[in-house]
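Q: Protein A?
A:
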Amino acid sequence: MKKMNAWVLAALLGAATLSGCQTRTANPEEDYLQVIGEYEQPMPEAGYRLSLTYNGPMNMRQEFIHWADSLREEVPSMMLTNDNTYFNYMPEQMAKEKIKPSMFQTSMTYNIVVPDSATYGRIIQSVLDNGFPFNLNVSGTFVEPAEKQKLQQELMQKALDNAKAKLNFLSGGEGKYEIVGIEEMDNMQPYGPEYYEFNRKMASRVKVRARLTSN
């Protein structure tokens, strides 16, 4: 009986050892690599998104509107986004004065997209020449849709090349893996869209999954 028990115990231990080896060998994750490819490119030739605000007296309002309408002929993308007229006197300043148009101020904001710095400079000079009180802010970059699509494809290819270089390093050389999945990732991470807008850059990020081969 003791010999029988010893034999059964040895058999069970052997089966457990074999089972453990089989589980380790069959783990599919050991045969795969996953990397993130990245590429970032400056865009010094990109256009500008501008925010132009007139903030001045009512008696110059119509003159500014006329100027803005003429500018729209050169820059069709120009769009009025805010128009505000407000009383510019505090109650204690009024005394017994009657309300007059000169007591009002007006504020008008336009969003403008320009293709280059030359157009940007002409707009600034034109506003100065007309003597309008204004604020002009750069709110981001602009690329024509067709050109943007072309750039995105080029950047994605370069991000994929970066991922392949990482796979070559991790697998021990080219030809030792097979790509089985590519996923485009959020290209605004980790800095957010403001970083890329104000630094005039575009970026691409892709997640690449590859299966290791026996070559």
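Q: Protein B?
A:
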Amino acid sequence: MMNHKKTKCTVCGKLFSLSELTPGRFMRPNVAERIVAEHPEWNDDSYICHSDLNRYRSLYIQNVLEQERGELTTLEHDVINSLREHDIVSQNLNDAIESQSTVGQRLADKVASFGGSWTFILLFAGILIVWVSINSVAIFIRPFDPFPFIFLNLVLSCLAAIQAPIIMMSQNRQGDKDRMQSENDYRINLKAELEIRHLHSKMDLLLTHQWQRLLEIQQVQTDLLEELSNKR
């Protein structure tokens, strides 16, 4: 039968299976120091559950960031929490922004997009040509806006007065999008940096453990060689 014996977590005191625990000898020294500060009975033969381990890792990372960068921002706290919960910090900003947009904001984006296209330029140029042609070559009809086209100037002025603030609203929204994109990139880069540090620490511990095992094997081989040489 399989052994279902459970082992006690030194930190929280709860019972867990060995697969849900991490031995103290595999802990990063800096993380182990934080545990010892709160639990003096901790040693290399102790065990800690994954939940408490993630909590102390996040506390260690938070302490490192505070030492390097001073007081942590909200974004950095979000990244630390995501490391603790193993969550993903990246998100689709386009969907998030569109879901929060009002009808007026979406309309401003469409107007600004149309106003900055070749379709608008060609359409506007065609209207001007037709307008000027009708009012300049008035053979059969009386022109409704003769030269110097005062009514045309009024229409253009009104169009510019309306279009300018709409374009500014769209630019403000684009600025908000760029700011959110920068914050999202910062979260991703910060988490990647911390994950790489965590991976390096795991590799260091693994190499140290394997090196100790190799030394033990080498000592055994040396003892065997000495025994063989003594028998000759």
